[in-house]
Specification:
Layout (H helix, E strand, L loop, with lengths): L1 H36 L9 H6 L14 H4 L11 E4 L7 E9 L8 H10 L3 H4 L2 E7 L4 H14 L1 H5 L3 E5 L19 H21 L3 E6 L4 E3 L3 H11 L7 E3 L8 E4 L3 H10 L6 H11 L13 E3 L31 E5 L10 H4 L6 E3 L7 E10 L1 E8 L12 E10 L6 E10 L4 E5 L1 H4 L4 E8 L7 E10 L6
Parallel strand pairs: 2-3, 2-5, 3-4
Antiparallel strand pairs: 1-4, 5-8, 6-9, 7-8, 10-12, 11-18, 12-17, 13-16, 13-18, 14-15, 14-17
Helix pairs in contact: 8-10
Organism: Lepidothrix coronata
Pfam families: MGAT4_cons, MGAT4A_C
Keywords: Glycosyltransferase, Membrane, Transferase, Transmembrane, Transmembrane helix
């Protein structure tokens, strides 16, 4: 009889374990199906990213009981937000800038961050942005004091409908105590980062329908001059290509740009796994699940961390983005073009990488005299400025030692092998670089092609780090 009872106990345990494992697998499958099928993505495209991010595994078994409520990843979360300052936006904007802030033990940078956003934007840019500040602390006295400061310093922005301050009551938050301690984090650290995930989920949910795009900032950030114009130029340059996240800073979740239509799903995602890991790790998983395998980050950075004390326990945090440039910089237009070269390309450092706005480059083996890197524009263009940089800091000798830059007209050939019949030389490379302005005044024809020509063989390999083209007006067709 005892043996029978032991046998049945073992069977119950096995069934229980099997059920838990099955439910865990079911949740993962449903999550993937929801994220992929809804947008027509194929699961195969995300397999490599899932393997790459396996270091920080998500464990959905704990969320089986809440999955029913979160399965509609495109729907908004039902929350009553309190407007502490401002009113609902009268019209949709181009970009929403979201900030979430809590009381700090040391330092308070929120007002300086808001000030930087507005001061670094032109009058025309201000018409296209909305700033949403979420005061996410449960201390009502602190919230009232901060709202009063914001209302006094930025009253005209609130009246103009470009600044809103919101708060979510504590009743809407999930359990924040007694959470599991992943990565051996202390309990207070787990609580802090878990609540932060929920804070951002609520903020994203609120901002989902305010604009076309959304950028995530922290409450201790300084902005580059005319950052919106730079962001718009980058978005325009990415037209026709798929992306989930564009990054304008290399620090944490500062300067992460999203399509607003992805915000509801991102909000649900952060809520579902709020206690699993820090927000910036979850953002990487989200990007991968939506089939963006590689980081798409732009340099120089548009946003800089300026705080010295973290919102967690007031600990020192002196992280700085060394790619940040505060003064206005001009992002090139780089109009659509076909790229080709007759040089021997090293591994996957293909021609397209030199013309990209992302931080990558073309790398070819030792070129010979007469070798070239060619650009054939999809449409004839007027060019105002051209800049080409070769070599890198790590490989300073892999530059173009002897070369010239030429522009051409009169295209012949089919789409696969188009080229220009005549070229005009604009100048020679100096120390591996080339730059020329006022091109439209020096070239009288509409430009169809551009090429970098090697004028003398070299034993060193060649890195073309960046090719930047600025256009003037579009020529009459």
């Amino acid at each position: 009889m005892r043996h029978s009872l032991k046998y049945f106990d073992k069977m119950r345990c096995l069934r229980k374990r099997s059920a838990v494992s099955f439910l865990g697998i079911l949740v993962v499958c449903l999550l993937f199906m929801n994220l992929y099928i809804e947008d027509g993505y194929v699961l195969e495209g995300g397999k490599q990213q899932i393997r790459e991010t396996a270091t920080h595994q998500l464990n959905p078994e704990r969320y089986v009981h809440t999955f029913k409520d979160l399965s509609n990843f495109s729907g908004s979360i039902n929350i009553s937000y309190r407007y502490l300052a401002g009113t609902p936006l009268p019209r949709k904007r181009y970009l929403t800038i979201g900030l979430s802030s809590v009381k700090r033990k040391k330092g308070n940078y929120l007002l300086e961050t808001i000030k930087s956003i507005f001061e670094q934007s032109s009058y025309e840019e201000l018409k296209e942005i909305a700033v949403v500040v979420q005061l996410a602390d449960f201390d009502s006295t602190w919230c009232e004091g901060v709202v009063q400061d914001i209302s006094q310093k930025f009253a005209h922005h609130i009246i103009a409908g470009r600044l809103i301050v919101i708060h979510v009551p504590e009743d809407y938050y999930p359990v924040l105590d007694g959470l599991k301690r992943n990565y051996n984090d202390p309990e207070d650290r787990v609580k802090f980062r878990s609540k932060q995930n929920v804070d951002y989920a609520f903020l994203l949910n609120f901002c989902a329908n305010l604009s076309d795009y959304y950028v995530m900032l922290e409450d201790d950030v300084r902005c580059s001059k005319n950052f919106l114009t730079a962001v718009k130029k980058v978005i325009t340059s990415r037209e026709g290509s798929y992306w989930v996240t564009l990054e304008f800073s290399k620090l944490g979740y500062i300067g992460k740009l999203y399509h607003s239509h992805d915000l509801p799903r991102l909000a649900h995602f952060l809520l579902m796994f709020y206690q699993e890991m820090p927000c910036d790790w979850l953002l990487i998983h989200f990007r991968g699940l939506l089939a963006q395998k590689e980081v798409i980050r732009f340099k120089p950075s548009l946003f800089q961390h300026m705080g010295y004390y973290s919102s967690y326990k007031g600990a020192e945090n002196k992280l700085k983005d060394d790619d940040f440039e505060e003064e206005s910089f001009d992002i090139p237009d780089n109009p659509p073009a076909n790229l080709h070269t007759n040089m021997n390309v090293f591994e996957n450092y293909e021609a397209s990488k030199a013309y990209s706005s992302i931080d990558e480059y073309f790398w070819g083996k030792a070129p010979s005299s007469g070798d070239f890197y060619g650009i054939v524009f999809e449409k004839p263009i007027k060019i105002s400025k051209i800049k080409v940089v070769t070599g890198t800091e790590d490989r300073q000798n892999d530059i173009l030692h002897h070369g010239a830059l030429e522009v051409g007209e009169k295209i012949v050939g089919n789409k696969k092998g188009r080229q220009c019949t005549t070229y005009l030389r604009l100048g020679e490379f100096k120390n591996g670089n080339f730059e020329i302005t006022d091109v439209e005044h020096k070239v009288l024809f509409d430009i169809n092609c551009m090429r970098i020509l090697v004028t003398k063989s070299q034993k060193e390999w060649l890195i073309i780090r960046s090719i930047s083209v600025w256009t003037s007006q579009t020529p009459n067709q």
